[in-house]
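Much of our argument rests on the idea that a fold can be written as discrete symbols. The record that follows shows the chain in one-letter code together with its fold in token form.
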Amino acid sequence: MAALPGPGFEDAIRPHTGDIRGIRPTSRGNSSAVTVLISGTRGEFFVKAVPNRPGGRRDSLVREGLINPFVSAFSPAVLWRAETDQWLALGFEVIHASPADFTPGSPDLPRIVDTLTRIAELPLPDIAHSWHETRWDRFTADPTHTESFRGDTLLFTDINPANLLVADERMWAIDWSWPTRGAGFIDPACLVVQLVAAGHTPEAAEEWAARCPAWSAADPRAIDAFAAAALNMHTSRAKRWPDEWLKAMATAAEQWATHRGIMPQ
């Protein structure tokens, strides 16, 4: 059985899990310090936890807990929350599902588009009104372009095969670590980069994105501005952290930007 972190972590979650009988590490929830499957006398839970100190990791876990009731059609339910001076933890229901297949010809592609469309149709919760999407702002060449990223759509943004899971006829969007409020075309645009990385041509990837109403309704100039910002963001990350996945994202973003006639700044 894997070990839990200390100090006091097990004591913090035991009121919710009961006596712990089994622990299995998992790669899900990369923004959290702890991601484990726990079997206890009160059931089985997927647990995400971070040290309880100010900062981005704690903020993202708090936000994930706050948004969960509003995205219950797509995300496993948060069943409990535990907080001590040392730790903040969320216990989720356990789902048994597999990563979606983003490659060309995949039978999952229509469900991916349908899931993003349904997320975009959700009413913006009051809790999210101040969660303005600004992550791409500093990567824009023209500050005025950031206005095209604003909007009243609830955005998922963390779109990748590991976060869109398939079980039978259902698709789950998991790891809502940083939902925001912004322009509805942003989620389909994030999908485009992922599809290109999975082997689609930029043209084919945009054809899938065009099935999302928010993409079809968007000003092409806004999409151009986002493609340029996405290229700058992914390139910056790939240079800062030598990681093969980040490198693949930067390459995909460059292919997409080139398709739209955008060159690196």
The radius of gyration is 19 Å. The first helix runs from residue 9 to 17.
